[in-house]
Amino acid sequence: MPEFLYRAKVVSGQTVDGVITAVNQREALSALTQQSLFPLELRDRAAADSFFKIQFSLPTRVKVETISDTLTQLADLLTNGVSLLESLDILSEQTADKRMSEVLGDVRDRVADGKNLDEALAEHPKIFPPLTVHMVRAGLEGAFLEESLDRVASFLRKQSELRGKVLGAMTYPTLLALVGSIVAIVLMVLVVPMFESFFDRLERSGVGLPTITVILLVVSHTLTRYGLFVAVGVVGLVVVGRRFLATERGRQIMDRGKLRIPVAGTILHDTAISRVCRVLGTLLHNGVPILKSLDISSASAGNTLLQRAIKESAENISSGNLLSQPLAASGLISAQVMAMIRVAEETNTLDQVLVKISDRMDQKIERRLDMMVRLIEPIMLLAIGGMVMFIIIGVLLPIIDLNSAMD
Hints:
By secondary structure, the chain is mainly α. Among the domains are: 3-56; 64-159, Type II secretion system (T2SS), domain F (Receptor-associated Protein, Up-down Bundle); 265-366, Receptor-associated Protein (Up-down Bundle). 76% of the residues lie in helices and 5% in strands. It has helices at residues 25-34, 45-49, 51-56, 64-79, 84-94, 98-112, 117-122, 130-142, 145-191, 196-204, 211-245, 248-259, 264-285, 290-299, 304-318, 324-330, 335-347, 350-406; strands spanning 3-9, 15-21, 38-44. Strands 2-1-3 form a three-stranded antiparallel β-sheet. The chain is extended.
C-alpha cells in the first residue's frame, strides 16, 4: 500500500512531519483529519524518494504492443464482471513493464479518487494518445466500454504491425548504405594516402594524372585534413535543418517533397490516407462526434497537407455540407476512394467504409513496400560497387598509363 509524507499542524498549533499509509491521497487526508491533524502538505513517498533518480534517468517508453495488450486484458476483465478498480489493480501487479505498472497504478488511484477512466488516462498522454482517450470516453457514455477498449487495442496493434513492416523492409537497405559509406571513407582516408608519394613522383616527372585520380586525391585530402570540420559542418546543417523542419513552413516543404519521391512518395501518401481513414472510421463507429473525430484524425495524418484538407472538411461539415466535397477538392485522395466515401455518406455507413478502405490500402502498401525493397537492394549494391570501383580505378589508372607510356 502506498505511503505518503505529510506535514500537518496539531491542535496546539505545532507543525509535525510524518508518514501515513493509505490507498490514495483522499484516504490519507481523511486519516489525518481523524487524528486531529490539519494537513499542510501531502506527497507520495515513492515519488519523493526517487526525485533525483528521475532527474538523471532517461525517459522510458512503453511499447505499443504492451499498451494494446493491456487494453485487451482490461476489456476481458470487465467483460467477465471484474470491477474497474480491481481490474486496474490486477493489471498493475501482473504487467512485466515497470513503466506501465506505475501508470496503471496512478490511473487506478485517480479513478478511486472519483475521476472517470478517460480522465485518468488523459493524464498520461505519452502512453495513451487522444484516440484512446476519446474512444474510452465514448464507450463510457454509450455503455460499451469493453468494445471500445477492444477496438482501440486492435487499431494500435494494426498500426504497430504496419510500422514494423516498414522498419523491417528498410533495415537491409539502410545497413547496406551504412556499410558502403564506411568502406568508402576508410579507403579514402587510409588507402589512397598510401599512393600519394607515387602520384607526386608521376607529376614531377611530367606524367599528368587522370581527372578521376585528381578528384580522388581532392576528396581524400579533404577528408584527411578537414574531416573533423566536415563532420562538424554536417552536424550543424542537420541541426539547422531540424529546426527549420520544426516550423510550419518547413513541415509543409518536407511533406510536399516526401510525396514527390519516386515509389516511396506513393507509399507515404497511402500510409497517411490509410491512417486517417482507420482513425476516423474507428472513432465514428464508437460514437465520437464527427467534428471531434475529424480533429483527432487530422492530427494523426502525419502530413500537413492532408491535415489541412481534413480541417477544411470539418469547417465544411459545420456549415452543413458533405465531407467528400473539400476532400475531393484537395486532390490528395484518389477518385476511387472519394467515390466510396461519397456513397458511404449517402448510405450512412461512413464508419464501416472508412475501415474497409484502410484495410485495402494497407494491403497495397505492403505490396509496394516489397517492390520498393526489391528495387532498393540492387540499387544500393550498384552504388556501393560504383564507389569502390571509382576508388580502385582512380588508384590504378595512373599505373596503367605509366606502363603504356613505357611500352
